[in-house]
Amino acid sequence: MRRKGIGWLLALSLLSGCADQKILEKIGFARTIILEKAEGQDKALKVTISIPKTNQTESIVYTDVARSFKQAKIHFDMQNDRRIVLGQLRQVMFGASLARQGVWLPMESVFRDPAIGIRTHVIVAEGDIGRFVTRKYVQGGTMGEYIDNLLRSDPATRGQFDTNLHTFLRDYYDDGAEPVATIIGETVEGLKVKGIALFVRDRYVAKIQAEDAMFFSLLRSDAKNVSLFMDEVETPRGAGSISLANVIGKRKIKILSPPDPNRKKPARIVVELKLKGSLMEYDDLLEMNNLASQPVLERAMGKYVADRCERLIREMQKPGADGIGIGSHVRDRMRYKDWKALDWNQAFSDAEIEVVADIKIRDYGRLIDASA
Amino acid sequence: MADGKGNDAGANAAEKTKPTLALVAESVKGCADCLHEKLAGSGAELIYFPTLVDLDCLQRDLIRPLSQASPEQLNSLLSGAPYRTATDLKSCAKSIMDGAAAVFAGQDVYLFDAPKSTGRKIEQSETETIITGPHDGFVEALEENLGVIRKRIRSPKLKSVALEVGEVAKTRAILLYVEGLANEQFVTMLTDRIQDIEIDGVSDANMLVQLIDENPNSLFPQYLTTERPDAVVSKLLGGRIAVILDGSPSVFSAPTAFLEFFSSPDDYYQRWPIGTALRILRLIGFLITICFTAFYVSVTTFHYEMIPHTMLLNLAESRSRVPFPPLIEALLMETTIELLREAGARLPTKIGQTIGIVGGIVIGQAAVQAGFTSNILIIAVAISAIASFVIPSYIMSASLRLIRFGLIVLAGILGNLGLIFGIGFLVVHMAGVTNLGTSYLTPIAPAKFMDILDTLVRGPFWALKKRPSLSRSPNKTRAKIKR
């Protein structure tokens, strides 16, 4: 018995001579992969990778035009003094025009690499990406580090929904949801989150503006510490802007009736939002020192949030990109055969979706008496 | 004390030779330190070892009365206590070796017990120091050790069995247990095992336990040895059996489980949440000791993706100056640390400090600057070394340090797979180890929830109502406290 165990141990140690060693100082860790359409060439990709140097302020950048990422990587390996590995990848960045064509084929090998963890963000970049990697940033560090920190501190994406490789692929494979990615663009000072890219399968089809990203996050999952800014809340005393902070709440998707393509009846769906937050800023809309006026304000805010969310959903319905995952709820209410036969993207476009928002003010601190 | 007499009875059953002056003198012939003298007044002759007897006592209670007596008075004087009659040559010779003087009055032989107490006084144990709690530790003298235990358990239920170890050395050993609490089967089992040892001599309890354990080839110690009387007392009250060996400051108890090596008497003197935290800290120390350097090796060799990005760049920079692969680097550093430790342990304290300074400078600074090793490895090796000293039992900590080398090699060859493989192999091995037939992994396998309260954690006293199931005690209730 013991001899057998030792035998196994020996066998395992001896047979592992062909182990895939990746000794730390002999490898270069790519932090960013950028894929763009090559200008004027059909089926060709412009691949750029950035490998941070150990001094943490510079990075090595390689660019190549190739048929696929793997081919480009072979070219990079020919130049780099260390073997290039992807286990510390932090961003996969697609040029907007490539993203509109579809991102799956060029990146399949990266998507399937088991070494890549969930900290990799999927990004759609607007503008001249070539400049992004070479530019110096006042925020310090290299582009890769900057974007990584930026996306993790961005209030819309922070904690609400992560546009990382894991969620991207999960939604890609889920037939009841469509993937989303963060859009990044350039400003004078640096880079900026410009919105959220909606995908259908692997194609980038529509953009949600950065201002709407918060409301999108409310629709996509339960709210955890969101800040909401409402610019035009209609109240009996007039319109004004309100800012709610530390909003927590639940999102509930109610399927009133699933779609029935045979009878040409669209799905009827209600998205219920129950939110609670601290009132941080408000125009003097109502006399808040009056207890009775608080429910009025809450109702007004509820209507505003519901309207804005409905408008967002209409935008998503146009290309049929179900970025908030309503499909998975509809799927639960249908028979498998019917769901299989259904074209959910089309059904989503046709669906009647209503948003109901119930907002409560948790606290509002000291308020200045308007009439005083 | 029941020692000595029990064995006399056993010897009586065998052949009996009446001791005579000639025979006894013959048996101690060649021992230059043996004294043979004839008393002037009574004409009695004495044979004794001045090195073994208390000379003051001998002078006062034997030599002076006998010198003043006439030969006729001699037999009546010697017939009562504290003198006893020797009837058997073997036991007579043995008594002399135990520190008795043999008195030859005509045909009769009497013995006078005046053993000298030698050795150091009771003082704090050097290997198991604690902050709060009793500070006395066992010494080499068996009587002293038995005395401090008897003082703590003042009950005639504390039974002792006198045993003898070593065919030549005939070292005395005493097996202790509390009647009604200890499992009688274990008592017989342990007694038989100790009696069955056939070896020239045993010089320490830690050596004795290796002669009676069930897995002589295992890396793990299977009996808990301690130098602390309070620890032994709590084991005895928990229904365990303890054995004291003369000449050894370590006392061992049985049956023992793996996790007992991680508890210290301190745990019970602290408030229970602190005791629990300390226990958990030691278990973390255990994991760090065996795994941390191995994990460094596996991560730097195979799993670069597991390292946080910021640290990775530093690590890669530091590693890039090192000419060896991580496995060789780690083995070199671990060997250096072990060399330092061993050198420090052998040297006198005053020179030992020099070793500390030399080691600190060589390992801490120069090795990194010379590009001999990476600075993160220094941290890993140092933390593993510190963690190994958190474990209260020195014997266990030495075992774990050796296991660490095996895991480092496995991690260097197979990465995390090898590390997990090695740990799995350890667990399988430990699950097979037994002590007096009980499982070494109790209370994890077999799972005993009530025992976990007193092993992995140190539960509050109101929760510790049962004796540990390991001791298979006939009396299971330890406390009747209500919350």
Layout of secondary structure:
The complex is a heterodimer of chains A (372) and B (483).
Chain A: H1 2-15, E1 27-29, E2 32-37, E3 45-52, E4 59-66, H2 69-79, E5 83-85, E6 91-95, H3 96-101, H4 104-111, E7 121-125, H5 129-134, H6 143-153, H7 165-173, E8 180-186, E9 191-200, E10 203-209, H8 213-220, E11 223-235, E12 238-257, E13 268-282, H9 293-317, H10 326-332, H11 336-341, H12 344-350, E14 352-363
Parallel strand pairs in A: 1-5, 2-6, 6-7, 7-8, 13-14
Antiparallel strand pairs in A: 2-3, 3-4, 8-9, 9-10, 11-12, 12-13
Helix pairs in contact in A: 8-9
Chain B: H1 5-13, H2 21-27, E1 35-38, E2 45-48, H3 55-68, H4 73-78, E3 83-85, H5 89-98, E4 100-105, E5 108-113, H6 142-152, E6 158-165, E7 171-178, H7 184-195, H8 205-212, E8 224-226, H9 229-237, E9 241-245, E10 251-254, H10 266-269, H11 272-301, H12 309-319, H13 326-346, H14 349-369, H15 375-388, H16 394-414, H17 416-432, E11 434-435, E12 438-439, H18 449-452
Antiparallel strand pairs in B: 1-2, 2-4, 3-5, 4-5, 6-7, 7-9, 8-10, 9-10, 11-12
Tell me about this structure.
The complex is a heterodimer of chains A (372) and B (483). Chain A contains twelve helices and 14 strands. With 372 residues, chain A is an alpha/beta fold. In chain A, strands 4-3-2-6-7-8-9-10 form an eight-stranded mixed β-sheet. In chain A, strand 2 and strand 3 form a beta hairpin. Chain A is globular. Chain B is an alpha+beta fold and 483 residues long. Chain B has three domains: 5-113, no CATH class; 142-256, no CATH class; 271-435, no CATH class. In chain B, 47% of the residues lie in helices and 11% in strands. In chain B, a hairpin with a 2-residue loop joins strand 4 (100-105) and strand 5. Mean pLDDT of chain B is 87; it is low at 1-14. The A-B interface holds A 5, 9, 12-13, 16, 19-25, 27, 29, 31, 52-56, 85, 87-88, 90, 115-117, 148 and B 300-305, 307, 309-310, 312-317, 319-320, 322, 325-326, 410, 413-415, 418, 421, 425, 428.
